[in-house]
Amino acid sequence: MNPVRDSKGFSLLEVLVATCLLGVGIMGLATLQSRGIRGNDLANRTSQAGSLAQDKLEELINLGSGGAFLSIPNPNPFPDPNNPINETGGSGGIFARSWEIQNATPVSTSQSITVTVTWNDIIGQHTVTAQAYLTADGY
Length: 139
Hints:
Shape: rod-shaped
Strand content: 25-35%
Number of domains: 1
Distance between the termini: 96 Å
Strand order of the largest sheet: 1-2-3-4
Largest sheet: 4 strands, antiparallel
Mean pLDDT: 82
Radius of gyration: 29 Å
Number of strands: 4
């Protein structure tokens, strides 16, 4: 037998270990990437839902600023007739929007307006709420 003299390079075992470590690292990065994409999607949907809630809240405030709207409290949530709505408020999306108007305390001449937007995804149900108080003089 010839003794191995001053061998250079990597053995097969070293290459296999390095390949396994590289594979574990790549799988970890793939998991982080998919979680990042899900997080970005949730942030995007939350932003869209917030815009939908704010738009409806401003619409209701504008309707009620004349004072006539205040005489019609609605303690039960009123669903948007276009539900489910998309990110622009048109029908055919994933968002469900509703609003309710209640008498606010301690000021008896004021109303509390609450707009709620909900949607479901693979994580579960999400909700965004916008609220304002309106008096006979405006809010």
